[in-house]
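Researcher: Good morning. I'm working through a list of sequences from a screen, and I'd like to move beyond sequence-only analysis. For each chain I'm collecting a predicted structure so we can compare shapes side by side. This is the next one on the list. No need for commentary yet; just the structure.
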Amino acid sequence: MKIGDVNLLVPRIVGVVSTIDEVINAEKAGADLLEVRMDLLDRIEDVSQFFKDVRRSSSLPIIATNRWSKEGGSFTGSEQERISVLSSAMDLSDAVDIELRAAGRDVVIEKAKKQGIPSIISYHDFDKTPSKEQMMRILEEARSAGDLPKLAVMAKSPGDVLQLLEVTLQAQKPLCTIAMGTLGVHSRIIAPLYGSALTYGHTGKAKAPGQLSVSELRGTLDILLRR
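Model: Good morning. Structure tokens for this chain:
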């Protein structure tokens, strides 16, 4: 599987961005891909222009995301508006992220198929880490809906992280898994060693609990993967 010209056969670092400075810094720090968080943009009405500016500022493939408020996002409009804004940027993107439980999920997935770009089907649990059986079911459901399932859960104990890593190792690939929170910080480095295709980093301020910087991820993964 590829996003743009980036093959996901090896773990890739995604720089999470919402400003052009972050775009430039993410590429300099060693990101392989960019996730444009549309819900964090200063002016959501200028989304198409922002994506064009990203294209001019960086050669990295773009994942379009307009995160649902129920799963940690900041978009303040209606769900119909959120899906419409997300869809408007897909012509300028190399992949799209849509939540598994979003009402407009299938509309986004169908457009992605028509455009020939992969869909990342995401599920975030900010309260807990579900059981291994539940996590496997979530990943299977997400895979049946789109191309790449993404599961992010809140780690309340080291055992939660171990459960997520076991699921990562056993589940069908490609996939993305993350243990959020202080106890899950190391999962952002370790999960790629167990089969997670993507790990997400910031270039200034964390966009999710426990998120590391792109430079921290790059330096550590280069050592562990001996690149």
